[in-house]
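Final report, section 2: Outcomes. Of the targets proposed, Cytochrome bd-I ubiquinol oxidase subunit 1 apoprotein is the one most frequently requested by collaborating groups, and we therefore present its record in full.
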Amino acid sequence: MADGDTALILARAQFAFTVSFHFIFPAFSIGLASYLAVLEGLWLKTGKDHYLDLFRYWMKIFAIAFAMGVVSGIVMSYQFGTNWSVFSDKAGPVIGPLMAYEVLTAFFLEAGFLGVMLFGMNKVGRGLHFTATCAVALGTFISAFWILSANSWMQTPVGHTINDAGQFVPAGGWADIIFNPSFPYRLVHTVIAAYLTTALAVSGVAAWHLLKGDRSPQVKTMFSMAMWMAALVAPVQIFAGDMHGLNTLEHQPVKVMAMEGHYQSHPDGAPLILFGIPDSTAETVHAAIEIPKLSSLILKHDLNAPLAGLDTVAKEDRPPVGIIFWSFRIMVAIGFLMLALGLWSLLARMRGKLHEWRWLHRFALVMGPSGFVAVIAGWVTTEVGRQPWVVQGLLRTRDAVSPLAAPAVGASLVAFVIVYFSVFAAGTIYILKLAGKAPQPHEPAPDHAPIRSAGITPAQAVQEGE
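The predicted structure is given below as tokens.
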């Protein structure tokens, strides 16, 4: 293998590792910020203290997850300059402003109100504090808006032209770029996924305490709210995923061919391959378990609708089928397990056994981390399915990488792996430690607010007699 090919593989592996590690935290903090806003709103409306206890309990966990998300996200921005400088040069006039809008709107909004949310409960009025919590929740959504707009443009690039320097530049207004064809579907699908990820994590924590015999109002409320989210939103997510899939079929049909494992075209209706072993060399799926013509029914709403296969695509333009085939099935399988959990909880609720059925609690506990697995599997499907393009149909991944030697990229990759697994593992362990303790009546709020950023404050000087 040539040194350039090795450097490309290592650069892709590095970005895949860092983005996968990073997205775990935004997927949690986006949903958790909204959950905190709901909890505080319910406390203000009803005056029931267990809502405030839950707010303070999850606010501590949110602060850690949010911090780790911010730190891990900064690293990826530097990689655009170090490992993907050609991409930065060619796509920078489009991607750069979108990333800047995310900083100028979402990040400033979050940074401006986060301190008030975390440490201002006893320092500002209730209305202002609730406003700060809602502002942080809104900021997480706006952040997702801009990041997903940039990513979606790479999937379905429109609204641009190419200048004499070979750069993608806006052609007219920004509306076409921002609201590109795949963006609305990807935004809805991703944000709902974040809400479900949070709901499952919350239900897992509540189920753990229920199994330990804790029947406090805080734990019961936490589990009930999470189960409502699973029961009501999981069906919506399955529908949104189906709509996203149809949009992908329209604009990125090769990705769908790989997801479905369709190496061959099917002129009279394509089967839905449930499981099998993709073999790109032989261009077949070994030991396939399939349902005849169901893929055509799902994708075209017609049992006999023809579907093109990868045999219509040049081999150099095909994504790696095996990875996408299985990541897609992992995501879909978890989605239906979420639906099953939600339906089971409805049955338990109807029979008045929501907090008594231990097998339901065990299922919820096992499903606790499944949302994180699903979102990573979804991103693998989306990003690997776009290969071999970094900008679909316009800029190949191998043409976007920096002219780096493989040892340099490999060394930085090893450094990232070591640092990430040491630093972020410590943060994750601390989150699990916090979640392992049940929320208590009169849950204490964070009391270690920063007094200053640097230097000696006048108040401290007076106290020290200076």
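The longest helix spans residues 3-46.
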